[in-house]
C-alpha cells in the first residue's frame, strides 16, 4: 500500500476544515460560471475518479469495472487472466501478478450507453499472502480507459499511472490513491491531474471476502492538482455529504444515489468550489460552481 508521508497526513487533516462551503440548491449540469467549461470538466473528472475508486474496492471490479456486468452479483472470470495466478491464502488476491489489458477482450458494450475499452498494465500484490483479507496493493502503468458513445460523437480517454492500496476489515475499507491522470476533452487540451486522496467505505452490512460490496457510505478527502493549458488549480477535495452507494442499482455504472463532493481552491483569482451532487440511482450527478463569500 502506498506510504503517506507525515506532511501528506497533515495536509489531509487540514483539508477537512474546508468541508462546509456555501453552495446553491439549483446546481445543474452545464450551468458553469468558470471559463472554458471548467466546472463541467472538473466535475466529470471527479465523477469518473470516484466511480473508478468504487470499482477498486474489490479486485474483480478493478478488472471488470462496475457497470460492465449485467448485475453486481454476477462474478465472472475477468477479461484478462493474471500472469501468475498463485493465491496462497485463497482470498481472491494473487500473491503477485500482472494483468495486461487489451481491447478486445477488455471491451465492454453498453457501459454508460456506449463502449468502454481498457488497455495497459495493472500489477496486483497481496500484502499478507499467508492470511486472507480484503487488502491489496496495485501499481497502474499506462492503464487507459476509452469511452465512446453509441453514436461515436463523444470519445474521451483517461490514462492512469501510480498506486492504489486497499485495506480494512469486515466493517470498513480504506482505499488510498496516488495517481497521475491524463484526461482528454474534445476540442480542448488534455488535463494533467495529480490525485492524492483517501476513500473510506462503510458498508451497511458485514463484508465478506470474494463477494461484491453491499450498499454503504463513502467519504473522500484529499487533493487534486489540475493543469490544462493555462489553467492550474490546486483543489482541496472534501465530502460535504457522505456519498451513498446503492448495490440495488443494476445495469448502470452510476450507483451513487445521494451525496455531495466539494473541490475548493483558487480558480485564476476567483476563490470558490466546484460542487458535484448526486440525486438518484442511474442519474448523472450535477456540476456547479459556488464562489466563496
Would you write up a description of this structure?
- The protein is mainly beta.
- The protein has one domain (6-291).
- Helix content is 11%, strand content 46%.
- The protein is built from 3 helices and 12 strands.
- The protein has helices at residues 6-15, 38-55, 59-63; strands spanning 96-101, 107-111, 114-125, 136-148, 155-169, 172-185, 188-203, 216-228, 231-245, 256-267, 270-278, 286-291.
- Strands 1, 2, 3, 4, 5, 6, 7, 8, 9, 10, 11 and 12 form a 12-stranded antiparallel sheet that branches.
- The termini are far apart.
- The relative contact order is 0.19.
Reconstruct the topology from this structure.
Elements: H1 6-15, H2 38-55, H3 59-63, E1 96-101, E2 107-111, E3 114-125, E4 136-148, E5 155-169, E6 172-185, E7 188-203, E8 216-228, E9 231-245, E10 256-267, E11 270-278, E12 286-291
Antiparallel strand pairs: 1-3, 2-3, 3-4, 4-5, 5-6, 6-7, 7-8, 8-9, 9-10, 10-11, 11-12
Strand residue content: over 45%
**Can you write the helix and strand succession as a string?**
HHHEEEEEEEEEEEE
Q: Rg from C-alpha positions? A: 18 Å
Termini Cα gap: 39 Å
Which parts are unreliable, with pLDDT below 50 for 5 consecutive residues or more? 1-32
The average pLDDT value, as a whole number, equals: 88
Q: Label the overall shape.
A: globular
Instruction: Please give the share of residues in helix.
Output: 10-25%
Structural class: mainly beta
Number of helices: 3
What's the β-strand tally?
A: 12
Amino acid at each position: 500500500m502506498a506510504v503517506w508521508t507525515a506532511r501528506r497526513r497533515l495536509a489531509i487533516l487540514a483539508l477537512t476544515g474546508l468541508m462546509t462551503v456555501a453552495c446553491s440548491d439549483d446546481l445543474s449540469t452545464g450551468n458553469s460560471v468558470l471559463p472554458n467549461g471548467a466546472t463541467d470538466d472538473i466535475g466529470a473528472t471527479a465523477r469518473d475518479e470516484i466511480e473508478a475508486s468504487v470499482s477498486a474496492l474489490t479486485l474483480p471490479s478493478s478488472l471488470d469495472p462496475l457497470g460492465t456486468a449485467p448485475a453486481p452479483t454476477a462474478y465472472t472470470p475477468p477479461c484478462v487472466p493474471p500472469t501468475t495466478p498463485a493465491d496462497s491464502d485463497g482470498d481472491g488476491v494473487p500473491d503477485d501478478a500482472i494483468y495486461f489489458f487489451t481491447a478486445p477482450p477488455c471491451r465492454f458494450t453498453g457501459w454508460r450507453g456506449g463502449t468502454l475499452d481498457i488497455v495497459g498494465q495493472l500489477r496486483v500484490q497481496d500484502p499478507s499472502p499467508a492470511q486472507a483479507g480484503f487488502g491489496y496493493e496495485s501499481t497502474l502503468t499506462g492503464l487507459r480507459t476509452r469511452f465512446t458513445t453509441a453514436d461515436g460523437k463523444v470519445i474521451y480517454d483517461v490514462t492512469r499511472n501510480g498506486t492504489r492500496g486497499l485495506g480494512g476489515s469486515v466493517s470498513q475499507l480504506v482505499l488510498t490513491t496516488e495517481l497521475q491522470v491524463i484526461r482528454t476533452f474534445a476540442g480542448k487540451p488534455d488535463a494533467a491531474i495529480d490525485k492524492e486522496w483517501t476513500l473510506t467505505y462503510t458498508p451497511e452490512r458485514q463484508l465478506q471476502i470474494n463477494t461484491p460490496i453491499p450498499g454503504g457510505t463513502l467519504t473522500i478527502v484529499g487533493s487534486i492538482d489540475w493543469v490544462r493549458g493555462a489553467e492550474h488549480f490546486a483543489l482541496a477535495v472534501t465530502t460535504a455529504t457522505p456519498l451513498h452507494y446503492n448495490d440495488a442499482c443494476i445495469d448502470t455504472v452510476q450507483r451513487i444515489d445521494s451525496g455531495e463532493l466539494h473541490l475548493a481552491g483558487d480558480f485564476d483569482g476567483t476563490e470558490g468550489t466546484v460542487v458535484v451532487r448526486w440525486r438518484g440511482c442511474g442519474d448523472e450527478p450535477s456540476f456547479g460552481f459556488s464562489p466563496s463569500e
